[in-house]
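Appendix B, Record 12. Input sequence as logged:
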Amino acid sequence: MASPLPERFGDYELTKRLGVGGMAETFVAVRRGLAGFEQRVCLKRILPTFAGDADFIEMFLREARLSALLHHGHIARVLDFGVAEGSHYLTLELIEGTDLRTLLRDHLHSRGNVLEPGLTSYVGHALAAALDYAHTADDCGRAAGIIHRDVSPSNVLISNEGEVKLADFGIAKATRIPGSIQSGALKGKVPYMAPEYALGRSCSPRSDLFSLGVLLYECLAGRRPFDGDNDMQTLARARAGQHDPLRVAAPHAPQVLADAIESLMTPDPAGRPIHARALLSRLAGFPPPPLAHLELGRLVRDVRGTRAEPTGPGLASTRPAVTLRPRKRVPSRG
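Logged structural output:
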């Protein structure tokens, strides 16, 4: 049973529960200091059930270590890590907004709308830049060649001001840090999973790019490309590259943008862009509009009819008009 809130937890006051997963729970938390200092953060802590589980604690420590290596404008930032009341925790910047999954499914697709190509390009640029940074180890090993392994709409956070941030590196692999590569059970979300990873083969930066392609296809088409009746059918379709071409599923998509996204979803990793920077070069053929971040922030606020609630692991209003494009229903030719 969840503790009543507000709850004192170490130096923080937990004011609102944001969510709970298999290993941890997240809260809006406030840390106060001298002279009226106050900081609102997202606090993630191991569930009490697993507070003494050495394996869960090691996974949590791994996430903390990897996340601490990442300092990029499009990656949710870790602020603190520690132990309080016998439980390990992370604090991350609090995003006043929503996640892409909520924006797409609950507030666009449910109304028969999809994300405009210009805003899809903006999201694509932001996430490709985040992945380029995470994948690329510098000479000191600080970026560590981190592969996210769970690029999906629920892990893309969007602020009320239109900032896009990739979050949750909890199952990431660091290719340049000894002892940091996980093995064992498959982790991630099947509809976005690269075929080679689903088959138990080694994943690579190109595996993240496959997942990004599925995400961007969903932004434009209002549905995922490989969805079957069950997970096994979905994986089989992904392995075969069986999906409606994006220009069929989303006829409004500019050819250059559609081609860039299609290039990410080839079953053979060798057929995808060699790295995220190559994707950025392709996306440059259809750049986002100059005020895309303002348009996206307006969309985050307007589609909910109120100021969005804080979400996941702060962020930052002018109000240009946003046009919602009705989604065209295209029967699957699967």
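Residues 98-326 form a domain with the Transferase(Phosphotransferase); domain 1 fold (CATH 1.10.510.10).
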